[in-house]
Design brief:
Number of helices: 14
Strand content: 15-25%
CATH architecture of the largest domain: Alpha-Beta Barrel
CATH class of the largest domain: Alpha Beta
Number of strands: 18
Length: 429
């Protein structure tokens, strides 16, 4: 099936067509031609061998990628599974996702990685998975990193469990250098975290909830950067949430540490004020911080200190969310609403090109060592979108089995219209 895209503005700084409105012809999964005007083949259209797509204010970029998604399979299919997770990714405009290994069993072996690969073959969304760093995510013994790496899995993380032991982190980073792998760590000192429920501050005090202090993150940022410098390993710091962490990462990069980092959409667009009503849908990890932290994180995206914006897509069932705040699980759905939230809250701070860099170019470069480009002869992998389209989130927009999102009924700005990948074209309803 061939595809002709009409009058789309190309957002790709790596393309000579960047910011130009062009027609794009796709043949056999590759970009065959880019020109000001390309005529449809009426015979092909009539025979059903070609699709012509156009829309108001149509934009195109390389396919978006999320670096932190949870599809919950295997083990927690009542929350979500691979099929419904893929539907969420499609709805949000993503052609690639990187799954976290916090499943049951934990993704900590070659066979577990192959399970994910084998059960997502043929999808329009490329589903990649990380392995855990340690066996069963217990924080002690390293997984068989070489064996896992042999099936093209190069990212390792214990995700929200956070790797605590210094010597284990050091060894993992040494292996990452040898394998050209990537160690992803959520910086959170559990001895200081102390089972906190929300950001430590005035709001937590007034609510009588145990707080999660900034220092629990910042101490671990220091540790991980120091170990990365010592080992010359490949480090990615996940879910950065505080102003001081930004300063530490900026300094670490200047000192030559091989580090990258990301921030969750939640920590860009919301503060701990949202928790005042004890609404468990706003209970996330890292916790929602302050406006001062939000501003520092956005500035860090602008100057390149933080490289990636992620959804932290975390489906949770009602039993784990509709309960007392202390007992509720952390997590918000994120794939379906990420781009719309960016358009509503961040588009005045970051240009459209900068946003695409953070949700497409950089995630692929960091996690997959992959580079896409909208040029003739290149593989066709792209997202079509309208950055100005205003829409209201409804229940039907949520494709996950779970419903733990506070954004139902909220008006957002910017929406994915279609995706193309693996010779498949999907128009988003």
């Amino acid at each position: 099936m061939n595809l002709l895209i009409k009058s789309a503005r190309i957002i790709d700084p790596n393309s000579k067509h960047h910011n130009k409105i062009m027609d794009i012809f796709i043949k056999s999964g590759r970009i065959e031609k880019i020109a000001k005007s390309i005529k449809s083949c009426k015979e092909s259209l009539e025979a059903g061998k070609e699709i012509e797509f156009s829309d108001k204010n149509l934009h195109i970029s390389t396919g978006w990628m999320d670096m932190h998604s949870n599809f919950r399979e295997p083990g927690f299919e009542y929350k979500d599974d691979l099929k419904t997770g893929i539907k969420s990714a499609i709805k949000g405009g993503f052609t690639s996702v990187l799954l976290m290994p916090q499943t049951e069993p934990v993704i900590d072996s070659k066979s577990h990685v192959e399970y994910i690969k084998n059960n997502t073959i043929g999808s329009v969304v490329d589903v990649h998975t990380s392995s855990s760093i340690t066996k069963k995510m217990e924080g002690n013994d390293l997984v068989e990193m070489h064996d896992i790496n042999s099936v093209n899995c190069r990212t390792f993380t214990d995700d929200k469990k956070s790797l605590q032991r210094n010597e284990v982190m050091k060894l993992a980073l040494l292996y990452s250098k040898d394998l050209d792998g990537l160690i992803m760590n959520y910086p959170n000192d559990k001895s200081i975290f102390n089972n906190g429920k929300m950001n430590e501050g005035i709001t937590s005090t007034n609510m009588g909830l145990s707080g999660i202090s900034n220092i629990s993150e910042e101490i671990m940022v220091d540790r991980d950067i120091n170990l990365a410098k010592y080992t010359e390993g490949n480090l990615h710091l996940s879910y950065i949430s505080t102003k001081e962490s930004v300063s530490k990462i900026k300094r670490g990069k200047k000192e030559g540490a091989n580090i990258t980092s990301d921030v969750s959409i939640n920590n860009l667009v919301m503060t701990d004020e949202k928790v005042k009503t004890f609404d468990t849908r706003y209970k996330v990890l890292p916790p929602l911080r302050t406006k001062k932290d939000n501003s520092a994180l956005i500035k860090a995206l602008k100057d390149g200190t933080i490289d990636v914006i992620c959804s932290d897509h975390s489906p949770e069932d009602e039993e784990n969310k509709r309960t007392e705040f202390d007992n509720a699980a952390f997590g918000i759905l994120g794939l379906e609403t990420l781009f719309g939230l960016l358009g509503k809250h961040i588009s005045s701070d970051l240009s459209l090109s900068e946003i695409i860099e953070k949700i497409s170019t950089n995630p692929r470069r960091i996690a997959l060592k992959q580079k896409l480009k909208i040029e003739e002869g290149e593989k066709a992998n792209f997202t079509l979108f309208n950055p100005k389209l205003e829409w209201e989130v409804t229940n039907s927009d949520i494709k996950s089995k779970s419903r733990n999102t506070p954004f139902i009924g909220e008006k957002l700005k910017g929406k994915a219209l279609a995706i193309y990948n693996n010779k498949q074209f999907v128009i988003i309803d």
